[in-house]
Amino acid sequence: MSTAVNDVHEHEHEHPEGFWGVLGRWLFTTNHKDIGTLYLWLSFIMFFVGGAMALVIRAELFQPGARIVSPEFFNQMTTLHGLIMVFGVVMPAMVGLANWQIPMMIGAPDMALPRLNNWSFWILPFAFSLLMSTFFMSGPAPDFGWTFYAPLSTTYGPKSTDFMIFSIHLMGLSSIMGAINVIATIFNMRAPGMTLMKMPIFVWSWLVTAFLLLGVMPVLAGAVTMMLADRHFGTSFFNAAGGGDPILFQHVFWFFGHPEVYILIMPAFGVISEVVSTFSRKKIFGYRFMIYAIVAIALLSFIVWAHHMFTAGIPLVTELFFMYATMLVAVPTGVKVFNWVATIFKGSISFEAPMLFAIAFLFLFTMGGFSGLMLSIVPADYQYQDTYFVVAHFHYVLIPGSIFAIMAAIYYWLPKWTGHMYNETMAKWHFWLTVISINITFFPMHFLGLAGMPRRIPDYALQFTDFNRIATIGAFIFGFSQLLFLINVVRTVRGHGPRVGAKVWEGAHGLEWTLPSPPPYHSFTVPPEIKN
Amino acid sequence: MIKRFFSKKHLPVTLLVIALAMFGFGFALVPLYTLVCKTTGINGKTAGPSILGEPAEIDTSRWVTIQFLATNNANLDWKFYPETITLKLHPGENKLIYYYAENLSGQGMTVQAIPSVTPGLAAKHIKKTECFCFTQQTFKAGEKRHMPILFHVDNSLPKNINTFTLSYTLFNADKYKKSNRTLGRP
Question: Could you name the CATH architecture of A3-514?
Answer without folding.
Answer: Up-down Bundle (1.20)
